Amino acid sequence: EYYRRSRPPRHIYLIRHGESRGNVNESLYSVIPDHAMELTDLGVRQARAAGRKLHDLIGDDVSVQCFLSPYVRASRTLTEILRAFDTTKVLIREEALLREQEFGNFQDVDRIRQSKIERRRYGRFWYRFDQGESGADVHGRAADFLLTLFRQMDLSQSAQRSKHYIILTHGLFIRLLCMRYMGWTVAQFEQVWNPSNCEIWRLDKQPDGRYYLATAYSAHEDPETGKMEMVESPLHFGPDRGYDIPYSMRRPRSAVYAEQLADEQSASLSF
Questions:
Q1: What is the DSSP string of 224-249?
Q2: Using one digit for the tens of pLDDT, what is the confidence trace for 63-122?
Q3: Which of 1, 22, 114, 123 to pair with 106, CA 20 to 30 A apart?
Q4: What span, in angstroms and rounded, lies between the C-alpha atoms of 213 and 143?
Q5: pTM, whole model, 2 decimals?
Q6: Where are the alpha helices (DSSP H) in the chain?
Q7: CA–CA separation, 252 vs 125, rounded Å?
């Protein structure tokens, strides 16, 4: 009664929140809880630019399902994004699994800075902050969220209404969600850079039903006009951000294996 065959959305948009006050001044984390950190004025402008871009990509005639982190900076980003949409066609679901990596409670700035130095030596995926989470912990949450996401695709109301999904979360979570879905190794994950504030990663559904990491759009301000707009940008990869994420990492590992098997079968039939 409640489920029917899954009708996955055509596109999934992974979006990092706009610039927050904590991005500008890390000392604020010692007096403001991480979850309560607000956007800066620049972050608001980035979010509005992202909304305009998403509206250009999605259009007016389809409805949208949004999943968002419960953090203030994420909810404020979504509020500004939705200025570009008819909100009667938008379904919103707050999801605690999408929250930022936990660094403890009120943060000692010097201790966190030292921990981030140690993390570079220890490995970003494995390092656990004192009273907080490791990247591996967040990866577990990303796996749980994927199950939630695909269950939502099976819900009849969602299947009827939503052809585009927006997932508004945090930079590390976006990378770990892609790691889980695409099947990246830890070494591959370590080579992928965080999206910038309000950067959009677009996943397109392929004929086989799998999703492909197609492109990214990042916020840029025109130095002459001061206008903020989203422009297509690389998915930064490599130790110095000098490369784009390889094609083989933009698809689920199962799709890569399927292609390899098909090639092997084709080659064996040619003899």
A1: TT--EEEEEE--EESTTS-EEPPGGG
A2: 899 999 999 999 999 999 999 999 988 999 999 999 999 998 998 889 988 998 999 899
A3: 123
A4: 17
A5: 0.91
A6: 21-24, 41-58, 72-81, 109-122, 135-154, 156-161, 171-182, 186-191, 253-269
A7: 20
Residue whose pair of structure tokens reads 């939502």 in the numeric block: 152
- Pull the structure tokens for residue 267: 């080659």
| Neighbour tally for 137: CB within 10 Å | 15
Distance CA 160, CA 137 (A): 34
* Phi and psi based region of residue 148 (left: phi greater than 0; alpha: psi -120 to 50; beta: remaining): alpha
Tokens 């840029």 locate to: 220
Average of per-residue pLDDT values in the chain: 90
Residue type, 260: Q
Tell me which DSSP letter residue 209 carries: S
Amino acid at 172: L
Two structure tokens written together for 13: 């948009």
Tokens 């695409």 appear where?
Answer: 182
Catalytic residues: 17, 100
CA–CA separation, 87 vs 169, rounded Å? 20
**End-to-end C-alpha distance for the chain, whole angstroms:** 52
Could you tell me how many residues make up the chain? 271
